[in-house]
Amino acid sequence: MDIGIHVAKIFKIGGIEIWLTETMINTWIVCGTLIFIAFLINRSIRNPKRVPSGVQNIVEYVVDATDKFVESVMGKHAKRFSSFYGGMFLFLLASNLSGLFLGPGTKFYGISDGTWFSFMRPPTADIATTFALALITFFMTQGFGIYAKGLWGWLKGLTEPIILLTPLNIIGELANPISLSFRLFGNILGGTIIMGLYYNLPWFLMLGIPSALHAYFDIFAGVLQAFIFVMLSMTFVSNTMD
């Protein structure tokens, strides 16, 4: 079983190679799907009613639930971050659940090397995706910390409770994006590997069982890990602003 990141196409622009990988394609599929759904929802509620019904009722419930969740974690800072973290949660959720559709049986052609390979990996099963999202959280944490406390107040926070702990505080800040990215990456990749191994078993050993495994590794673990990533990101940003 091959779980490596495959290259679908290599472009050369000005002597620089640009690799189009399966992770990038899967990410575009997820983003395109979310944009298409958002477009359909926008068309259906272009003229919102005072008394909501149908799709508008569902959208208002989701938005209200998101606002309350962000407020429960970030308190007074929730208003400016609600839409951002709501969008991040939807992207992570869709990426994690994409393993249900981009499964081991989905085959695409590797243009670069002329071989067939499987696009079985969700985008979040690639450390590049999770680390990029964790870096967003890291820079937001430092940026909003400086914005809320000022540069001197932010630097002073690194020396608390005593100045001798400054190196440990700096290491702790640098470790946050690493732990955040590896937690999501490891859980999603682990589920992908287990499902890939299982699909390589003889057919008579798979009767009825894959659905239970998908329910746990793709649905339960996918929803849980998206929730944990977003909650920890909100906590890091909120704490640095208080």
Description of the structure:
The N and C termini lie far apart (48 Å). The chain is mainly α. The chain contains six helices and four strands. 66% of the residues lie in helices and 9% in strands. The protein is globular, with a radius of gyration of 21 Å. The strands form two sheets. The protein has a two-stranded antiparallel ribbon. Strands 3-4 form a two-stranded antiparallel ribbon.
The separation of the N and C termini measures 48 Å
Global structural class = mainly alpha
Principal-axis shape equals globular
Helicity, as a percent range:
55-70%
Number of domains: 1
Low-confidence stretches: 104-118
Strand content: 5-15%
The H-and-E topology, N to C, reads as EEHHHEEHHH
| Radius of gyration based on Cα positions | 21 Å
Spatial order of the strands forming the largest sheet: 1-2
How many individual β-strands?
A: 4
Mean pLDDT: 83
Secondary-structure blueprint of this entry?
Layout (H helix, E strand, L loop, with lengths): L6 E7 L2 E6 H23 L10 H20 L3 H20 L9 E4 L4 E4 L8 H31 L8 H33 L10 H33 L1
Antiparallel strand pairs: 1-2, 3-4
Helix pairs in contact: 1-3, 2-3, 3-6, 4-5, 4-6, 5-6
Keyword list:
two-stranded antiparallel ribbon, 242 residues, mainly alpha
Put the structure in a nutshell.
The chain is mainly alpha-helical and about 240 residues long. The chain has six helices and four strands.
